[in-house]
Amino acid sequence: MRTTAARSRLAGYAGTYALLLAAALLTLAPFGVSVLTALTSAGQFARQGPLSWPSPPTAENLLALLTSTDGFLTPVVVTLQMVAVILAGQMVFSVLAAYAFAMLRFPGRDLLFWVYVATLMVPQVVVVVPLYLMLSEAGLRNTFWALVLPFVLGSPYAIFLLRENFRAVPGELVDAMRIDGAGTLGLLWHLVVPLNRPILATLMLITVVTHWNSFMWPLVITSGPAWRTITVATSSLQSQYNNNWTLVMAGTTLAMLPLVLLMVIFQRQITSSIAATQLR
């Protein structure tokens, strides 16, 4: 009887892992094809197709993009600058706003918070035209500041996420810090931030991924190569290099490589933040 039950459990585990493996392969296959194609020479791709193993692997497609006269390196630099400025602004202003909503008391605090969070329900496409008109009237169209200003002062999602975690800080610790003479900023810097490092690291990763992958706003607010981001540049490769899929896939690989590296570096912090959220 026990042997039959053990076999049933083993079969169930095997079926579950087979299903998970199939789902993982289905999810990762497009990225694998992109990398393999980027490392394949144009001649081999024309002879053997996209599913052939590079023989031998070559970096000529990646180097051709980075050294091309069309300047694929420029969008990479612009995107790095844009993400760095937005990340700095998001972390500073989101932390300060979330701390105010979580720890400070002032009239209309909860109403203001929920009205602000309610903007999460508004699709981004709805505000693209008003933002475009505002920044155009201000003379900022096709500038670096047009890329970052709508996002640098924090976001409803970030403030909501941080506020819920800040509220979980034990009140006894807050009272003890106040007795020791800590002020408002002292509590934030020496207590709240250290206790929420995992969720801050996760928020940093989410912010970087979101704005690295941003496509609609850079496409609308910029024109020409000066302030083109990596997503817009990658999108234009298909028409620029018609049927040259090795170069197109090289651009796709370059676009996703920094995100993969970030995930590898911060995976421990992400796991810690998930575990801490579940414990709460």
TrEMBL record:
Gene3D superfamilies assigned: MetI-like
PROSITE patterns for this protein: ABC_TM1
Keywords, ordered alphabetically: Cell membrane, Membrane, Transmembrane, Transmembrane helix, Transport
Coiled-coil parts of chain: none
Chief place of localization: membrane
Gene Ontology terms describing biological process: transmembrane transport
Record field: transmembrane: 72-99, 111-132, 144-162, 187-209, 245-266
Top-level lineage group: Bacteria
Name used for this protein in its record: ABC transporter permease
Natural source organism: Brachybacterium phenoliresistens
